[in-house]
Amino acid sequence: MPKQWILMTNDDGVESESLLGLGKALADQDLGVVIFAPSDNQSATGMKLNLMKPLPFTHRIDLEKEWFSNSDFVHVYSLDGSPCDTVIAALDGGLDKLMPGIRPSMLISGINLGPNLSQDVYHSGTVAAAKEAGLYGMPSIASSWASFDPEGMEIAIEATVKLVLNCLKVLDLEPPHVLERENRTGKEYLSSWPDIESKDALSTPSNLVLKAFQSGELFLNLNVPPHWNGLYKTTRLGMRWYRNAVKIGDDNSSTFTIGAASIDHTPVENGDCDVVNQSFASLSCLASWPQGHPLHLNPRLLAWILKNTEDGLPIWLNSN
Asked: Which end of the chain is more exposed for a tag (fewer CB within 10 A), N or C?
């Protein structure tokens, strides 16, 4: 039996080689793998949901046999929906119905073909799925290959597997807060807003960040560059500017085509864009809940989120 189970999804679709390749690499680490991914490409759908609409799902036995040597501990399903649809379907009853007794320790979304840096995180279906898992109390990672050329994807797989194994060391076999509604508020790692007068010192900041990750209140966003130097850096979101994004049809068809012709970059200290350009894998800690929500992360923890170990992984991953 696997020592732990991993739930996986993406936005590029269930047949994506980066999704299946990562699943195979995780299975080779004696981990059980459940893939619950969109049937087709759902890139840039953000947190889109298909409401009040039956969403067919398919058990992809063909992919299990093609990609995995021991398919007894791998389950691959596709859903005719968005990345967030797949997460909700899996965590809010789908796993119990299809695979009773399997309790994944965390969710991995990706590996996305193309970077998810800076404001990309608002549009990305890959990042949205990881965020959605956090809303349900599931620890999660969004992983992206910072290139639109799939050649070299094994580099991103290596970086993602290493991160996952480090995360599993500090996670329970079964996350205790999945679907939990009671006792999630009032934690020291959460924002005290609107009590703006609260300035009590944080007791153990690194441990508080870890607890927030374990509870799904923050998730990790990984971007791996093609020329990865083997090291990570914890980052904040950088600054990118998409310009000349609209093309107007010249055939009197009254159409607009959206897709940036140029991307400008403003340097930011510890920015994810900057770090990727320096050949580091960028690892950003992002809040699952919107600012002003009772479960939003305490902003005074942000400085601790940027503290690294020697290999660049977050120092709080070693604070258990």
From this structure: N
